[in-house]
Amino acid sequence: MQAYIKPLMDAALFFPFFALALTLPFLVVQYRRYGYVNKLRAAVLYSMLLYMISAYFLVILPFPSSTDNCIREGAFWTYSQLVPFTFMTEILNHTQVNWTQPSTFIQLVKEKAFLQAIFNVFLTIPLGVYARYYFRRTAFQTGCIAFAAACLFEMTQITGLFGIFDCPYRLFDVDDFFLNTTGGLIGYFLTPLLTFFLPRSEKLDEDVQLSQMTVGYVRRLVAFLIDTIVYTAITGIFTLGIGVFLYQSLSNQGTDTVLAWILYALISVVGVLIYFVIVPTLTNGRTVGKWITRIHVVDDRLQDEQQGRTITARALFHRYSLLYTIIIGYNYVFGFIFSFTDLSPIILLSALFLYFGIGGLLVLHLIVNFFTRDKRLFYEKWSHTRNVITERKETSS
């Protein structure tokens, strides 16, 4: 039993790292496809991820102590069982059960040959449940999926983890194809019983009204991260090149670095104006990040106007000038102050107090608004703008 428990413990240990790595792609797919993240769907998909990791770890672990394992483990034929239904012969030959006395059937759960066969059946039962409940596959399709999973498992074993190890170290058994496929089909037929209290997967989004939903901070953070990557990729090299050129020119002329800071700030301002004001004006409130996450900025004062325009350049300029002047601007100011190495201790302590004080107030403001229904921050309220979910237009047939 320890041979099964240890891989499951390892899977539970590695699961948070896999889940974290896939969270951003998962959120993007959910936002693009459904317009929001359904908690039940997320629970189902993450549980499926945990199952897949656990199943694969059960197949490949434990590893040999060395990749050069042919002498210790034996070559291919040592770790191959190519006679179909050998598992039945093994059970019959080694069992202590008296088939005429049902009371002895309990002995099966203590016998290695029976446990190995049952393990390979149970290994793919969850796969059958996921295939029918979430992906809405037929019995035939589910059987094919379970058979494909068995092929992956056996290919992993026969190749020594795809060539990482010189020889196989786990048994390649043709019976596993039958047992794994059977497990998938059992899971398929058990699905109605196991998911009795869950809503049908095709009805998860039935009563959802995207227009009534508030855009949360996680979604906005994802959009911001995407915009940061895109903005940096587009303007980073250009800005860096100009910045280096200007800095060298100013240094060669002996000009004070104050002017260099001002020029860096101007370059950043121009980039922000183009990306966050001009582009969203042309795309009706969308940046690349907002388009990917299916949100856009609207001006509450334009909701009753016609022609489909919900944002203006003026409103966007008001919104982002407030945001970047207060949040980014104060970092520029204090960064400039802290660049001086000859500050007196009193001035330095005062600057640090103001810097962390303002930062603390901004964080407190974010936390307080996190628990409000509106969730708009100061720059959104003052500019009368907000993020809303972009709904797909129904096309007429």
UniProtKB/TrEMBL annotation:
InterPro entries to which the protein is assigned, alphabetical: RDD, Teicoplanin_resist-assoc, UCP031578_Vanz/RDD, VanZ-like
Domain VanZ-like: 49-194
Keywords assigned by UniProt, alphabetized: Membrane, Transmembrane, Transmembrane helix
Name the record gives this protein: Permease
Cellular location(s): Membrane
Membrane-crossing segments per the record: 12-31, 43-63, 113-133, 145-165, 177-200, 221-246, 258-278, 322-340, 346-371
Keyword Transmembrane: yes
Membrane protein topology class: Multi-pass membrane protein
Domain RDD: residue ranges: 216-357
Primary localization: membrane
GO CC annotation, single: membrane
